[in-house]
Specification:
2-enoyl-CoA Hydratase, Chain A, domain 1, 23 helices, about 20% strand, 8-stranded mixed sheet, alpha/beta
Length: about 600
């Protein structure tokens, strides 16, 4: 390292340290201000007018990625504006809807689903939660600027459906688009050698084909048709519009102008924001309240309510506890990143839950497309040991497929939503060959080896013996997968094989095929686990794991290069940052571990 590089390195360390200290100071002031407010209001009466005014409606926006757990306390930090925008986890949003039911300051909910970033299974459970909320007698209404299939599905849970006078409609059905890289790899002189078990195992197709295989197209068509059928049913029942009409309008793009929504009965009225308060006052039966109607987002409402419980959260744990273990992301060996399921930290957490005598039952919440076969097997083993000690209930989120389904096989009872994507029982091996690429750029390869196959790997094609070697490994792993499923589901291996072959299923179809036990969301799984933990009806405390990282320790653990990389990534245009994210998802498939249980998770249903 020369003197100039040394100075640059020292300067970077100094700047990053000052940045860390500044954020710690800012968080400290915020924390202690909140604590003082909590303590000072803790002696007040129970009206809570200091926090939330009467006649308040919750604006359910959901305009941030709705994760099962937010591992990184700074994931929503904008280094350009120095703002930290709080976001809720999926379960915290469910808590908001539950708390608001009995909160006399909350008169109802306004669903603003313009930019909803929840998956389809999450959206299904949110719609059910809104339906449960409306049974309290409080109104649920929808007010949208943009009407998509997802926002209309969610809005159909309400009693009223309004839209902005210049609302944009995107009612056109569902589509899945997949990217295929075969031609690109050929131009780069990269040969990808694939060994797969299961004709529907389509995660390898982007590397080997130019379009979907007939089997993949069949399963994908079934997937979107089942989800679309659920959307039609709920939107039709919520709006009173016949499903046949909704189908026809999507086919011909009939809903083009805002007035078309009113004319066809999908929307009751077109309102400007300043007219919304009057309509809400009319809905409450008191037009004089229009100037007294207030709005609060679900995030603001949650934190204002949870602030009063801050001190009670520090009280000693008493009674029985149901642990909710969150497993979200691609399953990878080792530590993994904050957006992945690293086998090592998850296994360590499972062991702690198994040994913790206060934990009476565990809910495993899975939102994963799968990943490493070895990591999935290691996680399954630890879950199986846990299930031998205490009840283990599985809750499937948006996706619990391939390796995500594999780890679910340790569960006693498996819940999934109707729109959950699951199954994908299959295995594939992936061995890229960079020999031609090296030659094309002037790199020559020479080898000295003790045995014929010692250089088997990335710099030459596999020979016949080596392909047979990989085929046997893949077949063995697939047979192990079949055994895990057959034992857990009490099915024959032959039947499981017919349901497997890498095929994905919706939760609704998975129930019919015996691949899951019950239809239901996260709350249903938690309530069932509570009944197992305390059959006598005693109070049960819910705890989520892994715990969110402390912001102070997260800051102190940052490395200078991580700060620099985060800054650079944040400044990238969105299309480029999305491409970088896609590249990151695929790069693990090209590493030395060649056996994978994963579905074509990059496919988005929209």
């Amino acid at each position: 390292m020369n003197f100039k590089e040394f100075v640059k390195y020292v300067a970077l360390i100094v700047v990053s340290s000052l940045f860390t200290l500044a954020v710690i100071f800012w968080l400290s002031i915020t924390f202690f201000s909140l604590l003082i407010q909590v303590v000072s209001t803790g002696k007040a009466d129970q009206s809570d007018k200091t926090f939330i005014a009467p006649h308040t409606f919750i604006e359910l926006r959901l305009d941030y990625p709705l994760k099962e757990i937010e591992r990184d306390p700074f994931s929503h930090f904008d280094p350009k504006t120095f703002e930290l925008r709080p976001a809720l986890s999926f379960y915290q949003v469910l808590q908001v809807l539950d708390m608001a039911r009995t909160d006399n300051r909350i008169d109802g909910i306004v669903v603003r689903g313009d930019a909803i970033q929840a998956g389809w299974a999450q959206t299904e459970e949110l719609r059910q939660a809104l339906t449960d909320f409306s049974r309290s007698g409080k109104p649920v209404v929808a007010y949208n600027n943009i009407l998509t299939a997802k926002s209309m599905y969610l809005a159909s849970a309400g009693q009223k459906f309004w839209a902005y006078p210049m609302a944009v409609t995107d009612w056109k059905g569902l589509a899945v688009q997949m990217l295929f890289f075969k031609d690109l790899l050929q131009k780069l002189h990269i040969d990808v050698q694939v060994i797969r078990q299961g004709k529907y195992k389509s995660a390898v197709e982007p590397f080997t084909q130019k379009k979907m295989s007939p089997a993949n197209r069949l399963q994908t068509r079934r997937l979107v048709n089942v989800i679309w059928g659920e959307i039609l049913e709920k939107v039709s029942s919520g709006t009173g519009v016949p499903a046949d009409s909704l189908e026809l309008w999507a086919q011909h793009l009939t809903l083009r102008r805002p007035n078309d929504l009113v004319r066809h009965g999908l929307v009751e009225a077109m309102l400007y924001p300043d007219q919304l308060k009057k309509q809400l006052a009319d809905l409450l039966g008191n037009t004089t309240l229009s100037d007294k109607v207030h709005f609060i987002t679900e995030t603001e409402y949650y934190y204002k309510n949870k602030a009063k419980e801050l001190l009670s959260e520090w009280s000693p744990l008493s009674g029985k506890t149901v642990a909710v273990l969150l497993a979200e992301g691609q399953i990878v060996p080792g530590e993994g990143t904050k957006d992945e399921i690293g086998a090592d930290p998850l296994i360590a957490q499972i062991r702690k839950l198994r040994k913790n005598k206060k934990i009476a039952a565990v809910v495993l919440r899975i939102n994963s497309p799968g990943g490493s076969a070895m990591a999935s097997e290691q996680i399954w083993r630890e879950l199986d040991l846990l299930a031998q000690k205490k009840p283990l209930v599985v809750s499937m989120g948006n996706v619990a497929a391939s390796g995500g389904y594999y780890i679910a096989m340790a569960g006693e009872t498996i819940f999934a939503d109707r729109m959950t994507i699951t199954g994908s029982i299959g295995v594939f091996g992936l061995v890229p060959n960079f020999q031609k690429l090296a030659g094309s750029v002037g790199i020559n390869i020479d080898t000295v080896k003790t045995h014929q196959h010692a250089d088997m790997g990335l710099l030459r094609p596999l020979d016949t013996t080596e392909k047979a070697y990989f085929r046997e490994i893949v077949a063995f792993t697939y047979h192990t997968f079949l055994q895990r499923v057959a034992q857990n589901r009490n099915l024959s291996i032959r039947l499981v094989d017919s349901l497997g072959q890498g095929r994905v299923w919706t939760g609704a179809d998975a129930l019919k095929q015996g691949l899951i036990d019950r239809l239901g969301g996260l709350n249903d799984a938690i309530n069932y686990a509570k009944s197992l933990a305390a059959p006598d009806g005693q109070p049960v405390r819910i705890r989520f794991y892994p715990k969110v990282e402390n912001p102070f320790s997260a800051l102190l653990s940052l490395k200078a290069n991580e700060i620099q990389q985060t800054w650079r990534y944040h400044r990238l245009p969105k299309p480029i940052s999305q491409a970088v994210d896609l590249q990151h998802k695929y790069e693990r498939l090209l590493q030395n571990e060649h056996l994978w249980m994963i579905m074509p998770y990059q496919a988005e249903i929209k």
